[in-house]
Amino acid sequence: GQNIDQPTEMTATEGAIVQINCTYQTSGFNGLFWYQQHAGEAPTFLSYNVLDGLEEKGRFSSFLSRSKGYSYLLLKELQMKDSASYLCAVRDQFTDKLIFGTGTRLQVFP
Amino acid sequence: DTEVTQTPKHLVMGMTNKKSLKCEQHMGHRAMYWYKQKAKKPPELMFVYSYEKLSINESVPSRFSPECPNSSLLNLHLHALQPEDSALYLCASSQGAPDTQYFGPGTRLTVL
């Protein structure tokens, strides 16, 4: 079976750093994705990890530990426009389906 | 270019209507997807097309009928929907099934 956990909501201040965690239990793992989704809009691809370690892309970084079934998305120099839901998704090794977590709603305050 | 387009943006339909949602991509992607998303929930996979053939149907009711006329187009035909089918319908595409999926802007469907 598949189980993906993320915090439901987080708040942070403009200019700060926030870390959104994702833990997963899957029968077959073939990569982890992070998507950003503003209310009423489509998910936008942020990052992809398939090997252990840190992937950095501008203000956003994503980390993966396969042995711990753990990933995090790190957002630096937060801006108001970063207020959105952040979806962690694991790709199933056997079906290639994306299994989404419930998402973390991040609110950035001035 | 990672653009997936969807039309219409909004759709209101009665339970006896027949309507279609359209999705288009010109990135040469060979896998295309339909997802349904309810408010404050993650996207739920409905259908997957790979090389224009239906490869996954997640036990979706027959009132939803997908169609892939060619490698760039994906349609979702709707008939006799229920109010609980009201949701955001997202189309996505990827180079192949194991690759990164890029989502379209979605169609906000309301069934009265």
Structure description:
The complex is a heterodimer of chains A (110) and B (112). In chain A, strands 2, 4, 5, 9, 10 and 11 form a 6-stranded mixed sheet that branches. Chain A has a 5-stranded antiparallel sheet with strand order 1-3-8-7-6, with no helix packed on it. Chain A is an all-beta fold. Chain A is 0% helix and 60% strand. The mean pLDDT of chain A is 95. The radius of gyration of chain A is 13 Å and the shape is globular. In chain A, strand 6 and strand 7 (60-65) form a beta hairpin. With 112 residues, chain B is mainly β. Chain B is 0% helix and 57% strand. Chain B has strands at residues 4-7, 10-13, 18-25, 31-37, 44-50, 53-57, 64-70, 73-79, 87-94, 102-103, 107-111. In chain B, the strands form 2 sheets. In chain B, strands 2, 4, 5, 6, 9, 10 and 11 form a 7-stranded mixed sheet that branches. In chain B, strand 5 (44-50) and strand 6 (53-57) form a beta hairpin. The N and C termini of chain B lie far apart (37 Å). The mean pLDDT of chain B is 94. The chains are: A mainly beta (110), B mainly beta (112). Chain A binds chain B through residues 30-31, 33, 35, 40-45, 48, 87, 89, 91, 95-98, 100-103, 105, and chain B through 2, 40-43, 45, 48, 56, 88, 90, 97-98, 100-106, 108.
Which labels suit this protein?
A: 110 residues, mainly beta, six-stranded mixed β-sheet, 11 strands, globular, B: mainly beta, seven-stranded mixed β-sheet, four-stranded antiparallel β-sheet, 0% helix
Give the arrangement of secondary structure elements.
The complex is a heterodimer of chains A (110) and B (112).
Chain A: E1 3-5, E2 9-13, E3 18-25, E4 29-37, E5 44-49, E6 53-57, E7 60-65, E8 70-75, E9 84-92, E10 98-100, E11 104-109
Parallel strand pairs in A: 2-11
Antiparallel strand pairs in A: 1-3, 3-8, 4-5, 4-9, 6-7, 7-8, 9-10, 9-11
Chain B: E1 4-7, E2 10-13, E3 18-25, E4 31-37, E5 44-50, E6 53-57, E7 64-70, E8 73-79, E9 87-94, E10 102-103, E11 107-111
